[in-house]
Design a protein that fits this description.
499 residues; alpha/beta; Leucine Aminopeptidase, subunit E, domain 1; Aminopeptidase; 2 domains; eight-stranded mixed sheet; six-stranded mixed sheet; 14 helices; 34% helix; elongated; binds ligand BES; binds magnesium ion; binds zinc ion
Length: 499
């Protein structure tokens, strides 16, 4: 679907009204100059119990002077509380309805909203972005997909200055296309998307001037990445380490920001085998890497004036006679030895080497990692927040702020010595599970922290609960959400871009 900006309406044209909780229409003086029509419309609104509460949507069509009129009413609740993401949500709520219409193209008119902090321009751009984000679906393997149906292929907004809007929308489109890239990777089945394939998908970003480099197992062995390699050992599909470099601010002397992703293309648990029911969901265990790739694509598309590196550790966690055993001891690139007491706690092993490599190779002083790391984070936060763990109050606050702006919410958890000590091991430097139960997401983060240098500001986002959902969301269909791409893009934009 294409989102466009034009200065003449097409047929059918939909006029959008914003109605607050007092049922006041806030953007047009009048629903219609024709009092008969106005009465009818108000009547049907009250019949349909339209109260103007936040996110309520109602469509009414009628005929005026032989011309069909389509009105869309959007409830905005308390207008003083609206932020721009609310309008993105309205677009997302509207989109499935638009898809049921048998039109190829429609246009929208959106009257100016007064008494709202969000500018008129941003209202339109965010509505457009929400419609676009929600329009994503993964149909690659469904060849017979409703080809005969008339499909809505273009949504146009009527504005007085289309050129200006098209320019402004470029950034929204870039971020959404980063999100779509991320969702594509999440949906791809694991027999296709193995570590080697993930690496070649990453290579696609070369076209956008991202420098992509792939380390194979031989190179990783040379670097001493025994923790990552141990996890991949059981799979016929070889492991890969993928690095991505975006150099949008060449004159800067500071080191780049590091983004590190867990890319487990399938997690059976290994010999600490997962139950069969629900195991199919573990194709999304590369969600951290999909997030990194989505952000890299977004910032490259919008030519962000920032320097960012991505490091992805990609493995498949399988069972075979080559697979690692519970009680194996591996040596990580950092030099620390790890007793692998549970082969299903594999993400932290992969990240241990990916984090270390990121610090050694790029000398980063700020590093954020992303991982579908623990089931325990779902116990704690459900599917509504990602877990945030950090050694820096500033970095935590900045990420939390960006999460509020994009409505990809994060919640900070504590770290501390008492948790760290639970990982001490009698026969190796550290063990990969505590074995004591309790605080599973914190001790996982504590494990990662052992591979973060003292002078590096670091944050870890546990996205296990938010990356794959079995219900439609405001801006996505059921399945891969690509949670975090918009958040991190916003974080980079607000904190690390030369303006
Ligand atoms: N990939 C899982 C975590 C996960 C669970 C992601 C549910 C998405 C949804 C991870 O590798 C894992 O298995 N973690 C274990 C850790 C435990 C053995 C300490 C878990 O959460 O049970
Ligand atoms: Mg696991
Ligand atoms: Zn996993």
């Amino acid at each position: 679907m294409i989102v466009n900006f034009i200065n003449k309406k097409v047929s059918p044209n939909f006029k959008i009204f914003f109605i607050n909780k007092d049922k006041k229409n806030l953007n047009y003086h009048n629903i219609s100059s024709n009092s008969e029509i106005k009465k009818n419309v108000l009547n049907s609104l009250s019949k349909r119990n339209f109260k103007g509460s936040l996110g309520q949507i109602c469509h009414i069509d009628t005929i005026t002077d032989n011309e069909p009129q389509n009105f869309i009413f959007i409830g905005i609740g308390d207008e003083s509380k609206l932020g721009s993401f609310n309008f993105e949500y309205f677009g997302g709520l509207l989109q499935p309805y638009l898809e049921t219409l048998q039109y190829k193209e429609i246009s929208f008119e959106v009257g100016g909203l007064k008494k709202v902090k969000v500018s008129n321009e941003n209202i339109i751009l965010n509505l457009a972005s929400g419609i676009y984000l929600k329009s994503y679906s993964f149909k690659k393997y469904k060849k017979k997909d409703d080809e005969n149906n008339k499909k809505l292929s273009r949504v146009s907004f009527v504005v007085s200055n289309p050129v200006k809007f098209k320019k402004l929308f470029v950034n929204f489109q870039a971020v959404a296309d980063g999100v779509f890239f991320s969702r594509d990777l999440l949906h791809e089945p694991p027999n296709v998307l193995n570590p080697v394939n993930l690496a070649s998908r990453a290579k696609e970003l070369t076209k956008l001037n991202v420098k992509v480099n792939i380390l194979d197992e031989k190179k990783m062995k040379k670097l001493g990445m025994g923790a990552l390699l141990g996890v991949g050992m059981g799979s016929a599909n070889p492991s890969r380490l993928i690095t991505l470099e975006w150099n949008g601010n060449p004159s800067s002397k500071s080191p780049p920001i590091g983004l590190v992703g867990k890319g487990v293309t399938f997690d059976t648990g290994g010999y600490s085998l997962k139950p069969s029911s629900g195991m199919e969901e573990m194709k999304m265990d590369m969600g951290g890497s999909a997030l990194v790739l989505g952000v890299m694509k977004a910032i490259a598309l919008r030519k962000s004036k920032s320097n960012v590196v991505g490091v992805i550790g990609s493995v498949e966690n399988m069972v075979s006679s080559n697979a690692q055993r519970p009680s194996d001891i591996v040596k990580s690139m950092s030099g620390q030895t790890i007793e692998v007491l549970n082969t299903d706690a594999e993400g932290r092993l992969v990240l241990a080497d990916a984090l270390w490599y990121c610090q050694e190779k790029y000398n980063v002083k700020k590093m954020i990692n992303f991982a579908t790391l623990t089931g325990a984070i779902i116990v704690a936060l459900g599917n509504f927040y990602a877990g945030l763990f950090s050694n820096s109050d500033k970095l935590s606050d900045d990420l939390t702020k960006s999460g509020k702006k994009t409505d990809e919410k994060v919640w900070r958890f504590p770290l501390g010595k008492e948790y760290d000590e639970l990982l001490n091991c009698d026969i190796a430097d550290v063990k990969n599970i505590t074995g004591t139960g309790g605080a599973g997401s914190i001790t996982a983060a504590q494990f990662l922290k052992r591979f973060v240098k003292k002078d590096v500001e670091w944050a870890h986002l546990d996205i296990a609960g938010v990356t794959w959902l079995d219900k439609d969301q405001p801006l996505s269909r059921k399945g891969g959400t690509a949670f975090g791409v918009r958040l991190i893009d916003n974080y980079i934009y607000n904190n690390h871009e030369r303006k």
